[in-house]
Amino acid sequence: MKPNDDAEKLYVYPRPEFHKFQMCRTCNKFQKGNIWALYSELDTFPKYYDTFPKYYGLICKVEHEPFQVHINWLEACPKSDVERVWLGENLPISCGKFRVTTQNTTYDKPDYFSHMVSVRHHDRGNYYEILPEVGEVWAIYKNWSAGWRPRDFKTIKFDIVEIIENRELSTIVCILRQVPEYTSVFMPEKVNGTGIGTWKVPASAYILFSHKIPAIRLTDGGKLKGFWELDPASLPILLT
C-alpha cells in the first residue's frame, strides 16, 4: 500500500541550530530488520496513526533504485485496562510490548521516518519490547487523563524529559526546559535555582510517554556544553 500523495500534509519545522538530524534518516540508513518510528497523522509526532494503531514499522525489504522501503507495522500488546481502552480507541501507545503484524506499507522517500528504534527482541515469535532508555529524550503527556479520546489529542500539552535511570518498576526522568534564545536547545530544569529535580514514572504509567525525540548532547565548549539539541521535527512546541 502506497500513501496517497494528494492527501499528504506539509509541515514546516525550524532548522536545527547545530546538528543535521536529517542525515540520520538518509536513504542509506535503512536496513532490513531495523525498526523505525514513523510520523503520526494524529498529532504529527513520531507515531504513525491511521484506523489501526501503527506506531513502529519493521523493515522487511529495502530497494535503492528507485528507493522504496517495505515495512510491516507493529501493534501494541496492552497489559493494563487503560492500555486496552486506548487500543480499542485507536489511541497511541509508544512503550511496552509489541508484535509484528501482517499489515504492510511501502514508502518511496525517507521523510515519513523519524528515527531507528532501540528494541529488545522477545524469544517467542515476532515480539519486541520498546522502553525509554537511559540517555534518551522523550516527550511525555503533561495533561494526561485515562479518559482521553481521539478528539483530546488536538489539545495535548507536553513536558520534555531526559531518561536518567531505569529501575525494575519505574523510570527516573528529569524535566528539560528550552534555553532562552534557542529554538531547539534544552537544559535540565533547576529546582530552587540549584540542583536538578527528578521525577519517578511508575511502570504502570508508561502510557504517559508519547514519543522519543532524537537528541544530541552538545560537547563543544561554551555556555551550551552538556545541554541537549533536539530534533525540531519531533518537538511539540516547535510545530508550525
Query: Low-confidence parts, pLDDT < 50 over ≥5 residues?
Result: 1-7, 48-54
Radius of gyration, rounded?
Answer: 18 Å
Helix content: under 10%
Through-space gap between termini: 29 Å
Structural class: mainly beta
Number of strands: 15
Order of helices and strands: EEEHEEEEEEEEEEEE
Could you describe the largest sheet, including whether it forms a barrel? 8 strands, antiparallel
Number of helices: 1
Beta content comes to 35-45%
Overall, the morphology is: globular
Average pLDDT confidence is 82
InterPro entries: DUF3444
Domain DUF3444: 10-220
Protein name: DUF3444 domain-containing protein
Explained architecture:
It comes from Rhynchospora tenuis. InterPro entries: DUF3444 (IPR024593). Residues 10-220 form the DUF3444 domain. Pfam families: DUF3444 (PF11926). This is DUF3444 domain-containing protein. With 240 residues, the chain is mostly beta strands. It contains one helix and 15 strands, in the order βββαββββββββββββ. The chain has one helix at 81-88; strands spanning 35-38, 56-64, 67-76, 96-107, 113-116, 120-121, 127-130, 137-141, 158-166, 170-178, 185-188, 198-202, 209-212, 215-217, 228-230. The strands form two sheets. Strands 8, 9, 10, 11, 12, 13, 14 and 15 form an eight-stranded antiparallel beta sheet that branches. A hairpin with a 6-residue loop joins β10 (170-178) and β11. The relative contact order is 0.19. The model is unreliable at 1-7 and 48-54 (pLDDT under 50).
